[in-house]
Amino acid sequence: MNPATPHIYLIRHARPLINRKGFFTKAQAEQYIQEYNVAEVEEIIERSEHLPLDRIRKVFCSTLPRAKATALMLFGPEVELIEDASFKEFENRIWGLPLGKFPLLWWQVTSRILWLLGLNQKDIESFKQAKVRAAQAAEHLAREAEADGMAVLVAHGFLNEFIKRSLKQRGWKVVLDGGRGFVGVTQLSKG
């Protein structure tokens, strides 16, 4: 990695310690979402070899506990941790009639698709608003990386994906795509 080239690292949080097996009523799926937002995360056994750990002094993260806990596990308490609500995950509201039990994935995917289509956004941030927030977050990280040579974010799968898309539109190149897996690292560079 050329230290003169600005880099951005987008990292998804570690796997939350919460049971998602079985069938859920609508109320149970709603409860799961609430518990997921405050859940502890699995211990990280190995740090990614793609992170320049010796050079990282500042890390941005979501205000949700799973992102903060992941950042602390990856970088330790000596790093400057900047929590910012603009890095929170896109909201999800469980949609559906309170009839029957379904796998959690059914509730989540159905709700997310309807949200993406603009049909499930009552009392939460719309998809359009979330995309604007992701673009603003991308701009913030780009300014940080261009000023300091690097920006590191520990956040969430959907948000990171839309930040990556926005950065690519601004001319950033994906050097490494860690996907949306837990503790996945996506690295982008400018120029």
TrEMBL record:
Gene3D superfamilies: Phosphoglycerate mutase-like. InterPro entries: His_Pase_superF_clade-1 (IPR013078), His_PPase_superfam (IPR029033). This is Histidine phosphatase family protein. It comes from Rufibacter sediminis.
